[in-house]
Amino acid sequence: MKALVIGGGIIGASVAWRLASERVEVIVLERARLGREASWAAGGLIAPQGEADRPGPFFDLCVKAKNAFDAIAERLTRESGIDPEYDTHGVLYAAFNEEERAELKARGRWQREANAVVEELDPREALRLAPSLSPRVVHALYMPTNRRVENRRLTQAYVNAAMRAGADFREGAAVEALVTSGGRATGVRLNDGARVEGDLVVVAAGAWSGEIRGLEGDGIRFFPVRGQILCFDARPGILGPSLFSARGILVPRRDGRLLAGSVFEEAGFDKSVTLGGMRHVAQAAAELMPSLAEIPFREAWAGLRPATDDLLPVLGPSPTVANVLYASGHFRSGIMLSALTGEIVADLAMGRTPPLDLAPFLPERFRSPVQRQRFKMTALRV
Question: Which residue, 206, 222, 216, is CA-closest to 177?
Fold first, then answer.
């Protein structure tokens, strides 16, 4: 089998590694540079209990994704030669008023009912766990099994491991359209007119997945959602757990950097950092950790999350073109879902049953106009 993976971000690289490990011939076609879009701009959370707002299929997917990453972390480090800095300090979700306290208590209840590990903390307990947290905290949830990685190192680890397994990565190879015969994909055509033949095409092009011609019949709208992150130079160890609130997050790195994010903006393919976005992120971060005001600012960046109308990933075969699999639309959870997505695509490609029910995430859900209208996003949370 020869597989063409469209997109060289963390999802495409994970898929390439898993397929190449199955002795599939893999060519990854990246429109620009490997791992320099959403994968580069992310915070690096592997935190299902922080990411999912309610019980249901997406939360179940996130839990399986975290378990899938646990299962491959050591192997990936060994096969790539890169440590992705998989840290185990957990996530602390803080409330600063009574409304937020009630929301966290409800979150804690449904997560316990779902057999997730979660601890309710009073202010004294929360400050003992994270002394840098604002003393204005009134309640907190601690999620000790949630994790984080250095997402740029993790993306490169997938790329390295895939290359060592035989995958061919090509930068500057923008795919314009599928090449089909008899309703089946037989390859792709690049923007320069060149054709690349293959037996399987995997669409993992993130926010650019909707630009590929030949899949219009699937009715999927992929679109970019801009996020902005501020980075500060702190001392290593200043913060243990990643901090969440209703307005923002703070994610520490082993070298002392603190990442503060993020906003959700529909701004097309514009990756500009804006004053409004920076102000929102800075205010939310300072609310979580007031001492951040005295920590040197390092840099800011923006990235484009790949979204769909229901904000859920698209995983599985195209309903209109055979030999095409989707692995896109991961929105803000691509880092967390990377290991599981690679496993799912490899299972589908090799004729195995994936480790979960894909029904809520199959591409065919968008073919009904009623379904598209039901899921149409009317607003984005900030």
Answer: 216
